[in-house]
Amino acid sequence: MKFNKLLLAAVACGLATGANAQAKPEDQIKFRKAGYAFMSWNMGKIKAQVVDNPSSFNKDQVAAAANLIAATANSGMGALYGPGTEKDAGSQKTRVKAEFFQQPDEVKKLAVAFIKEANELQKVATTGDAAAIKAQFGKTGESCKACHDKFRKDD
């Protein structure tokens, strides 16, 4: 278990530098924005079915969305925060605060928490229990928001 947490932290925070060594800063920003946008869209699909309109609940759709969220959370997107991505690059704008790059221990803590909650959402979604999914959806959203609150600039 301890090894898994260390591995997740390393992957989440980009200590595996292969991805950023292959992509220009502009592309890293573009790729991470795309990943987060797709994850957000899938969070919206779950929200629509367990919060906004529970009568529309479809276990298979919710499970598919939760699978994508967990896969993205575990994909090592932290590697897309390489040198040069702390500011706008080319045509890509970033909303990441400089503190993100200055507080790696806090970033690791938040990343590991989000990965944990996303994995739990994936697990709970397979049960088809809409109330349990709704509760875990809230926890997952809060862990995502914790990073936004700390490290994302407002528009």
From TrEMBL:
Gene3D superfamilies: Cytochrome c/b562. Residues 1-21 form the signal peptide. Binds 1 heme group per subunit. It holds the Pfam family Cytochrom_C_2. GO terms for cellular component: periplasmic space. InterPro entries: Cyt_c/b562 (IPR010980), Cyt_c_II (IPR002321), Cyt_c_prime (IPR012127), Cyt_c_prime_subgr (IPR015984). Coiled coil: none annotated. Heme c binds at C144, C147, H148. Keywords: Electron transport, Heme, Iron, Metal-binding, Signal, Transport. GO terms for biological process: electron transport chain. It comes from the Bacteria. GO terms for molecular function: electron transfer activity; heme binding; iron ion binding. This is Cytochrome c. The lineage of its organism: Bacteria, Pseudomonadati, Pseudomonadota, Betaproteobacteria, Rhodocyclales.
